[in-house]
Amino acid sequence: MKIALDAMGSDNFPQPDVEGAVAAAREYGEEVLLIGDEKIVSPVLEKLKPGNLPIRIIHAPEMLTMEEKGLALALKAKQKEPKTSMAIGVDLVKEGKADAFVTMGNTGAAAAIAFFRLGMLPGIERPALAPVFPTRKGFCVVLDIGINPDIRPQNLVEFAIMGAIYTESVRGVKRPRVALLSNGEETGKGNFLVREATPLLKAGPLNFIGNVEPKEVFAGAVDVAVTDGFSGNIFLKSSEAVAKMITDMIKDKIQSASLPVKIGGLLVRPALADIRKMLNPSEEGAAPLLGVDGLVFIGHGRSDARAVQSAVRVAAQAARSGMQDLIRREIARRGPDDAKTGGVG
Amino acid sequence: MKIALDAMGSDNFPQPDVEGAVAAAREYGEEVLLIGDEKIVSPVLEKLKPGNLPIRIIHAPEMLTMEEKGLALALKAKQKEPKTSMAIGVDLVKEGKADAFVTMGNTGAAAAIAFFRLGMLPGIERPALAPVFPTRKGFCVVLDIGINPDIRPQNLVEFAIMGAIYTESVRGVKRPRVALLSNGEETGKGNFLVREATPLLKAGPLNFIGNVEPKEVFAGAVDVAVTDGFSGNIFLKSSEAVAKMITDMIKDKIQSASLPVKIGGLLVRPALADIRKMLNPSEEGAAPLLGVDGLVFIGHGRSDARAVQSAVRVAAQAARSGMQDLIRREIARRGPDDAKTGGVG
């Protein structure tokens, strides 16, 4: 597979991005197109001695920063002649010159560029970002976690279909259990969106197990949790914030404690480090932006080389799985009526 | 102050409820009206030797369970002659025979009963449940965390006013910092509700500091975080679930580890217990149901006697503070136009 990778994406670009690309090319044999300012990227790549690895730099004179937003961003996203590393990368996918695009850059910018330059899959109205969360039993794909703060019930159905196909075909979960994230499991609970989407999902072909609260997600009772981008973002950010608060509190408590507790702290340090690693989303690489007409993966700005490498691997897996065609087919299968109420395409 | 307390509220009723009542009467001198089945409550109270403490049992032939919901609940909530401990307790407040009602029972049932029997304060359209969250620097009041899954922007403004008055007059925070919970701090972020409510709050008299993400709540950057009941519930439940997952993971890790780590685990146990206690919402007693025309506090079903005692104390504080009148006055001060767009009263 040929993966286009934004060399200017991560907070510490281009080091983690280029290092991750080299590792992915070396370990998995994937071809990587490194997109970025040649003057900046080339010396970093050379230092890593790529030898005969299938890595090539594609020059991009501009880059999008974390500050990019609003109208200025929309104009850059739509520029006819692509100049930014993100636009060039997305266009490679559009033109069939790459199988997927991966970036660790500004999520909003990447989503806008993908949306404007690739368009949507027919019958899908809104894109959704679908990261993987650690649970007590493995993982759960949660979508949308931040692209669409305001949606319609039908969009939740689209998210459920796309999330289930991604989880089955790329993450290897047979007939994944799908649920709507809600404020309670009983019928009648949920906001307007959840209440309207529940019967649509019950009537559909997915393995829909009903509505779940956040505790079921973390307990591993569900493989795909579906929600709007506002609630999903609150879910993501609360989880991250509480995890950080607790691990910080443990550190503080131990540091300011008596000698025996301090010694205990030293002894349990490896166990705590394991947990912190498990909770670290960068381990998972990047999340797919589902629904756009082309494979795009977006990772955390603070990703290290290992996360970049893992993102390239997952993007290649997604390309091999034929996931996009499966989504296309499933949406078409639902018939013109569903497609009409659900889509703009 | 005279506090009506549901003796049949907690999961382990009536023991924690009655024990908490006795402790509150003894330590703070508050008068407690214990409402419940006399045959059940009386022996428990007698065992605790209340002597001359200002505690009195008021018989209630029925109780509402955790299973109560829907139409059956609505009918019970509206019953003319109150029979359940919740309805009798709420009616005592309505008739001025108690200054506040406290229950550790079914949140939905308590909210429905309070709403139907007390009605709303003039100019307030929706009630909001406002618990206190632990933060790195102290606490933050978050509302609504589950009563109203679907609201209008104006309701967020009402929640902000009520939350600020409660936090200042009962929790003792001078000119509390108020923020909307959102998926980002920048202007333009947020869902429809947040985007519409932001200018209304900016133009108002509160110490509105803008929009915050969950991490700012836990960092202690804000005293009152305002949100709709659906997102607020996701926030609450994600936080609880992640806290539980991490403390469980730490326990598992240590138990299955090598001897030195196990010894370390024993040594850090007090520090972990402190943290678990800090994260335990039952320490905070109960949350006010703001907006109804009478003071009602609702706590966790799993509350122990200490949580019940603390709830009685906070309810008495709220009654003494004149909080309800402060809310009434602030809503009236906003003028008939605001009151009209914001209220049903």
Low-confidence stretches of chain A: 339-345
The average pLDDT score of chain A comes to 90
The Rg value of chain A, from CA coordinates, equals: 21 Å
For this structure, the quaternary state is homodimer
CATH homologous superfamily label of the largest domain in chain A: Isopropylmalate Dehydrogenase
Give the SSE order of chain A as H and E letters: EHEHEHHEHEEEHEHEHEHHEEHHH
Overall 3D form of chain A: globular
The CATH architecture of the largest domain in chain A: 3-Layer(aba) Sandwich
- How much helix is in the residues of chain A? 40-55%
Largest protein-protein interface: A-B, 64 and 64 residues
Strand order of the largest sheet of chain A: 3-2-1-4-12-11-5
Number of strands of chain A: 12
Briefly note the CATH topology name of the largest domain in chain A: Isopropylmalate Dehydrogenase
Output the number of helix runs of chain A: 13
End-to-end Cα distance of chain A: 28 Å
Characterize the largest beta sheet of chain A: strand count, sense, and whether it forms a barrel.
7 strands, mixed
- What is the class of the largest domain in chain A in the CATH system? Alpha Beta
Overview in brief:
The structure is a homodimer of 345-residue chains. Chain A has 13 helices and twelve strands.
